[in-house]
Write a structure and sequence with these properties.
211 residues, alpha/beta, Arc Repressor Mutant, subunit A, Rossmann fold, 2 domains, seven-stranded mixed beta sheet, two-stranded antiparallel sheet, 9 helices, 9 strands
Length: 211
């Protein structure tokens, strides 16, 4: 099936399936039913079956799902069966936290470089990477086959940096800057607006209080 036909809601659930299946695999569980997975994830069994049917089903009637097989198949759908090279733009608090997050490597996302425009940070070591000046970014992207750029910079800098990244062949941007980037349609952008998430929490609290 053409993945353009699959809803964003289904795609958004795939990483969660992958995480839960990984936990089951680590526990030595060999197979799981949609009902058992439903109880773990608080997603209906019917929804789980519908989601998996978008990609061929994966299960057998009366048997359920082979945990390791399903885990590996979802990894393929998510592109996690391949390594992805990424760089981090911004070596402030957020950039440093992301550079030191070890789970990236476990998922196949390899941090190859960290860049900043603050000379005071040049040469600082962040888990095998040395903070480099922004002037070296373009050449580094080309020489190290970088797929993904992580933007952990102020929003007033993000647009210009995104343009530079597109010009040197970046494929995707993970954007933590609180701004919507204007990039060509073939560039994949995932926006992570932390304050938006916090406001959703605030709404949830307010909704409870209004009851």
């Amino acid at each position: 099936m053409d993945e353009r036909e699959i809803s964003q809601a289904v795609i958004a659930r795939l990483p969660r399936y992958y995480r839960y299946l990984g936990d089951l695999k680590d526990e030595g569980v060999e197979r799981v039913s949609s009902q058992e997975l439903s109880e773990l994830m608080q997603v209906t069994a019917s929804q789980i079956r519908q989601d998996f049917n978008n990609f061929g089903g994966f299960g057998q009637q009366g048997y359920g799902y082979n945990v390791e097989y399903l885990y590996n198949e979802i990894a393929k759908i998510l592109g996690l069966n391949e390594k992805h090279n990424l760089i981090i733009i911004g070596a402030g608090n957020l950039g440093r936290a992301l550079a030191n997050y070890m789970n990236f490597e476990r998922r196949g996302f390899i941090v190859r470089g960290v860049f900043d425009n603050n000379p005071a940070l040049y040469g600082r070591e962040l888990r095998r990477n040395t903070v480099q000046p922004m002037e070296k970014m373009e050449q580094f992207v080309k020489e190290h086959n970088i797929d993904i750029a992580v933007l952990a910079i102020p929003k007033d800098e993000a647009g210009n940096v995104a343009e530079r990244l597109v010009a040197c062949g970046i494929k995707a941007i993970w954007n933590f800057a609180h701004v919507d980037l204007q990039v060509p349609g073939d560039i994949v952008v995932e926006n992570v607006h932390l304050s938006d998430s916090l406001m959703k929490l605030s709404y949830g609290i307010a909704k409870r209080q209004r009851r």
